[in-house]
Amino acid sequence: MLYFIIIIANVIVGTLVGLTGVAGFLLPMLYAGSLGMSVAQGLSLSFSAFVLSGILGAINYKKVGNMDVPFGIRLSIGSFLGSVIGVQLNLIIPEEKVKILLYVVVLLSGISILIRKDKETAEQKQGFLIKDHFILTLILGFVTGGICALSGAGGPVLVMPLLVVFGIPVRTAVGVALFNSIFIGIPACIGYMTNCDIKALLPIMIVALLAHGIGVYYGSVNAVKINQKVLKKGIAIFSIFIAIWKLYSIFF
Fold this sequence. Notes:
The chain has helices spanning 2-20, 26-34, 39-63, 69-92, 95-115, 122-126, 134-151, 155-165, 170-193, 198-221, 228-251. It is an all-alpha fold and 252 residues long. α2 (26-34) runs antiparallel to α5, α7 (134-151) packs across α9 (170-193) and α8 (155-165) runs antiparallel to α9.
């Protein structure tokens, strides 16, 4: 039953990631919240999936020209360092508080998806562009990488809206955020796995990654057929509801 739930969940979440670039942040809630795994186990499985979806997604966005590789590399240098720090903070903070942080990040992520507009404006194109500022790009990467690694939030759901705010076109922001999630996910996955029984976790991880990869591939090739605005709003509402429910169960 455990494997069945993990397979179905990863196919569904992977498909949503392939379709919209977001929804990966639901995996830590599944593992740590619903399946009763430790935070380290749940985040190990989640970040391994984020690395896979980041690779597949970045390749697809690169093929269609929606990828700024030099900017993505600069951002990811900061994110890699931030991710290392985020893992260390997670391991010294009580598990219950980490779960609270995770649910809060999911709640805010759902709200950000719900209210974010995908249309580019003339002001965005003519205004501040973070890619022209090397140090600020590193700082943004470091901060977001640390938050994602600490909380278990998927990189794109946090990074993508911020990139749009700082002048990056929407489609390019999605591609860069997916690329960036690889460099958040690698140190995070390795860091959390060192605090798990690797032999016991590895079979679950292999099955989860196969299912997640199938979902991401299916979602990415069918993205043009789906009304993404409606789908993203559905994901956002579902995420907000689940996060509020989990926070309520903790405090009340």
